[in-house]
Amino acid sequence: MQEPVKPELRGTMATERPSRLRVFSLNCWGIRFLSQHCAERYEMIGELLDREQHDIALLQEVWSEKDFLFLKGKLSSSHPYTHYFKSGVIGSGLAVFSKHRIQDALIYQYSLNGYPYMLHHGDWFGGKAVGLVIVDVLGLKAHVYVTHLHAEYSRAQDAYLPHRIVQSWELLQFVRHTSCGADLVILGGDLNMHPQDLGNRLLRSHTGLRDCYTETDMFDGCEDGHTLIADNHFTKKQDLIPFEKGIRIDYILIKGSRRVNMKCESLSTTKGSVADKPFPYSDHEALTADLALLRTEDSRNALPVSERMEVVSEALAVVKEGLCLTEALRDKALSLMCGALLLLLLVFLPCLCHFSFITTGFLGAVCMGALLSGALLYLLFTIHIKVLKEIEDQMLLTSNKLQTKLTGCRVSGSSSSDGSPELQPSSSFKREE
Questions:
Q1: Residues 35-49: what's their mean pLDDT?
Q2: Could you read off the pLDDT of 386-411 as tens digits, one per residue?
């Protein structure tokens, strides 16, 4: 039986609308033939979702469509509306299960996502992306996002930091430009970033999304909200160095609107082991957020313009550094091409070639391989440079816009209702008498 609508909701929300939402997020670690006990864990995840009756479940690393179809069949009664986002070579791994009707869906694949030659990491083949579903929650228009960003393989020497900053920027731009007109905005997923990492601060400062963990009234879960913990049977302990207790890289972020606001009443995580089961659901801990829907408008202001400028400046510096490194890699690829071409000419030059037919063929094949590899790497790094320059241009536009607002604020001494300073009209634009 549906709960009665809270007094706060009366007047603007029809009585049949819900007073709260339950949102679930989990990185399922579903790499067929590589992830341990994959089939058994999907069975457990399906049982959990069917039992807990979440309104919306956001899953990551569902790499096989067969596993998605298994969950879809198992949850056909509890979560009849589903969408599986396809991208990249093996898919995005993103899936949404909902009790409420999904009206529309959209996916954006990140422009940078690692390197194809880093086979042992494999992010490039995953087609990391952000997926959007527009859900009709009994008259409320909810824009629900699920995403998975590039992994951090080394905290000390993070070669993928520029890629993750680019992904964070594209994620915040995607959310900003697609959430207009939404009553509710919810983002869940594995961001592969600590709470105070640059990409995380960039995302929250420019979208107004709020972290459920930091604002929840009640929390039941791992210490400090960690979602990768040492006590998890599947966790590789070396991945947690130097954070032996664990790290928090999975999130549920929320934002309301002028029509309805959201507040996280409670947040919980799984805690490694599962009662009466031989192993956990995944190498990540699952998140469950109970969100109250309130009539009152969100009165929390956006970050001050100066703070947003600082975050953009930090991100811009990382992108510039990544651009320099990528340009150096492209130069090395060009040098490889030139060297291979020169050797190829020397090998097959009749007047200089004193090798046997077999030796000549072998050297020629090596040179051709080097030439082809250099050409492919040159094209790859050229594409990456264009992406980094495009993101740099976008960040500069945002920085200039914020600088203009900041200057206007200092001149006029006024600010807008969302914490962003308003520009005062120039005297040349005064209305004629």
A1: 96
A2: 999 999 999 999 999 999 988 876 65
3-class SS at 261?
strand
Give CA–CA dist 155/239, Å, rounded.
9
3-class SS of residue 174: helix
Nearest to 323 by CA among 389, 409, 399: 389
Q: Residues 110-125, buried b or exposed e (16+ Cβ, 10 A)?
A: bbbbbbeeeeebbbbb
> Rounded to two decimals, what is the model's pTM?
0.85
How many CB atoms sit inside 10 A of residue 348's CB? 13
State the DSSP code for 431: P
Tokens of 201: 């601060």
> Where are the alpha helices (H) located in 61-219, listed in sequence order?
65-74, 123-126, 161-178, 198-207, 212-215
3-state secondary structure of 210: strand
The Cα 308–Cα 401 span in angstroms is: 11
pLDDT digits (tens, 9 = 90+) for 238-264: 778 888 889 999 999 999 998 899 999
Residue among 101, 119, 187, 178 nearest 149 (CA): 187
Token digits of residue 38: 């994959």
> What is the chain's mean pLDDT, rounded?
88
For residue 205, give the nearest of 155, 247, 168, 166 by alpha carbon.
168
Give the catalytic positions in this structure.
284
List Cβ neighbours of 360 (8 Å cut-off, separation of 6 or more). Answer: 347, 348, 353
Q: Name the token pair of 424.
A: 């005062």
Contacts (Cβ under 8 Å, ≥6 apart) of 30:
38, 41, 42, 61, 62, 63, 64, 67, 93
Contact 227, 284 (CB under 8 A): yes
Mean pLDDT of 178-187: 96
